[in-house]
Amino acid sequence: MIDTRMALCWPRGLDARRFLQCYWQKAPLLVRGALPGFRDRLPRARLAALAQREDVESRMIARTRRGDGYRYRVEHGPQNARSLARLERPDATLLVQGVEAHVAQARAVFDAFGFVPLARRDDLMVSDASPGGGVGPHVDSYDVFLLQARGRRSWRIARAFDEALDEDAPLKILARFRAEQEFVLEPGDFLYLPPGVAHDGIALDACATWSIGFRAPGARELAHDWLAFVDDRFDRDARYADPDLQMQRSGAWLSDQFVERSRRMLGRLVFDRARFEEFLGAYLTEPKAHVRFVAPARPISFERFVETARINGVALAAASRMLHRGRYLFINGEVATVPMRARAHARRLADHRSLDGAHLPADVDGGRWANALYDWYCSGYIRLR
Ligand code: SIN
Ligand code: CO
Q1: Which residues lie below 8 Å from residue 140, measured CB to CB, with a gap of 6+?
Q2: CA 261 distance to own-chain centroid
């Protein structure tokens, strides 16, 4: 195991709390030497091997000069030897998503940004580029820490910019980008960008950048999934009722009472608070499309699982996402109700991603907690330590 714990080094006068107060979602921030002693232990060959897997999302982005701009080509993964060979020439970038689920050092770096609540975390993307490589000037809807892992990259950024996109590009690239500021990042430096700041990163040498990304759900996608969730659980027999109906002066008037009562009927069905909490936790822990969990080929019995877990403890699988709220524990898009006496353990597992054996009494509430853990073990969501 390498670098299992890593702490960020903030400039004088700044710490995680002050960062959230002064910069988070507000302003870009460059931090030099944020990870003292950090050395990228993810060689290009290892990243390339990940990019060839079906269960890993990747893109190869190559560009060639066209007039005073570039023409871009994108190849979606899984990559092959031919597409990967493009990295041997200038102006190419290999992007690999979700690396924290596969590389221990990436997980440790991801966790070094643990001062941002887990519900906001997205993933760690590694971008490995040949000199001149870049994905073009663009804007993200994400908060991102762009950590320079190897080599140097120049970042040009602008808070005010022309939003017009390059119509011919296969990516969302700004057609007329003019930088307001430029920074050259060296290994261990990071640049924080809130959503909506245009940026353009260009590899000055063969270099690697690790993007620690934080998502914020868009109202449109959230509403879409929420309405689908509610539709499945709707009380289909609920109906407008007016046993107190009165005569109206204008028979054609759609009365206040009709509008208000219908609104309240729907409000009760659609905006049920407990149901919404259940939905949101499941939504935020939903694995990305590429993620596959590996179930044990020959799972051990429940009794042996409990016995071993009580000695060695359990840990979340690297790709698992877990959140807790009240009696609910959310894991990979599923919801479990945790018995009162097991809640402290459940939270510990969600916060620390692992649980010591001593925290695992088998008989908590008739073994319901142990049963849930066993089910997750069988699904590949957790493993024995
Ligand atoms: C990159 O690292 O090449 C792109 C990351 C980004 O612009 O968000
Ligand atoms: Co970006």
Answers
A1: 193, 195, 199
A2: 40
Q: Where are the alpha helices (DSSP H) in the chain?
A: 16-22, 44-51, 81-85, 104-112, 219-233, 256-270, 273-285, 302-312, 343-352, 368-379
3-state secondary structure of 264: helix
Alpha helices (H) in 65-218, listed in sequence order: 81-85, 104-112
Q: Closest ligand 1 atom, CA of 193?
A: 8
Tokens read off for 341? 């006496």
Alpha-carbon torsion, ordered 200, 205, 208, 212, to 10 deg: -30
Rounded CA-CA distance 166/91 in Å is 18
Model confidence at 2: pLDDT above 70: no
**Which residues on adjacent β-strands are paired with residue 96?**
58, 126
- Better-scored residue on pLDDT, 39 or 3: 39
Best CA proximity match to 314, nearest among 345, 355, 285: 355
Measuring CA to CA, how many Å separate 8 from each of 29, 32, 98, 111, 215? Answer: 14, 11, 21, 10, 21
Q: What is the dihedral of CA 20, 23, 29, 31, to 10 degrees?
A: -30
- Give the mutation target among 42, 96, 126, 135 for probing the ligand 1 site: most ligand atoms within 8 A of CB: 135
Residue in the block written with tokens 């990019």: 51
Q: What is the maximum alpha-carbon separation in the chain?
A: 82
Q: How many CB atoms lie within 10 A of CB 124?
A: 25
Q: Is the CB of 201 under 6 A from ligand 1?
A: yes
For residue 88, give Cα distances in angstroms to 92, 109, 128, 131: 8, 27, 11, 10
Q: Omega into 78 within 30° of 0, i.e. cis? A: yes
The CA distance from 332 to 234, in Å, is 24
Is the distance from the beta carbon of residue 140 to the nearest atom of ligand 1 less than 6 Å? yes
pTM over 0.90: yes
Nearest Cα to Cα of residue 320 among 107, 4, 109: 107
CA of 140 to the centre of ligand 2 (A): 5
- CA–CA distance, 221 with 226 (Å, rounded to integer): 8
Q: What is the pLDDT of residues 60-81, one digit of tens each?
A: 999 998 888 899 999 999 999 9
The owner of tokens 């066993």 is 374
User: Which one-letter DSSP state was computed for residue 367?
Assistant: G
